C-alpha cells in the first residue's frame, strides 16, 4: 500500500476494480481545509481518462510493474504487435493501451509496463521524442514569417502535426510524443 505522497506520473494503481496509470497530478494545499491531490488517471484496459481527487494521506493500492524494451513490429486494425528485445517473444496490444499510436513507426523501440503479478502488459511508454519524415505539406508562402505561423503537415505514420512554414515534404522533424508537437527540423 502506498499513500498520496507516493503519487507520481506513470505510477500504476488499482482503483474502482480497474488498473489506472497516473498521467497528471497536482498536490493542493488550500489556506482553509485539508490538503488533497488532484489526479488525472488513464485506465490501462479501456484507455478512458478520468479526473479524481484523493485527500492527503489517503491509502492507494499500487501495482508492482516491470519495464521491458519492446520493438514495434506492425499493426493490423485494432491490434499493435511488439517483440521483446531480450527473448524475442511477441505480444499484441489493443490501441487503447497506447498513448500516441499515430506517432509510432515500425521498428520503434518502446518501453512496455508489465504487471508483475500476472505478466499482463499494462501500457506503452513512447520515447520522449520521435524523428519522422514529412510526407505531405503545403508549400510555405515566402515573406509570411513575421509571426509564428504554422501549417499542417502529414508525417510518414499518418499523423498530422502543425509545423513552421519553412518545413517542406521530405524533411525529417523531431516530434515531442507527449503533446504531439513539432520540436525541430533534423539536418542530415
From TrEMBL:
Domain Elongation factor P C-terminal: 130-185
Pathway assigned to this chain's UniProt record: Protein biosynthesis; polypeptide chain elongation
GO molecular function: translation elongation factor activity
Any one annotated GO CC term: cytosol
Keywords, alphabetical: Cytoplasm, Elongation factor, Protein biosynthesis
Domain Translation elongation factor P/YeiP central: 67-122
SMART domains, per database record: EFP (SM01185), Elong-fact-P_C (SM00841)
Gene3D superfamilies linked: 2.30.30.30, Nucleic acid-binding proteins (2.40.50.140)
Subcellular location: Cytoplasm
GO biological process, one term: peptide biosynthetic process
Cross-referenced Pfam families: EFP (PF01132), EFP_N (PF08207), Elong-fact-P_C (PF09285)
Keyword Cytoplasm included in the entry's annotation: yes
Function, as annotated: Involved in peptide bond synthesis. Stimulates efficient translation and peptide-bond synthesis on native or reconstituted 70S ribosomes in vitro. Probably functions indirectly by altering the affinity of the ribosome for aminoacyl-tRNA, thus increasing their reactivity as acceptors for peptidyl transferase.
Family the UniProt entry places it in: Belongs to the elongation factor P family.
PANTHER family (alphabetical): ELONGATION FACTOR P (PTHR30053), ELONGATION FACTOR P (EF-P) FAMILY PROTEIN (PTHR30053:SF12)
Name of the molecule in the record: Elongation factor P
Source organism (scientific name): Hanstruepera neustonica
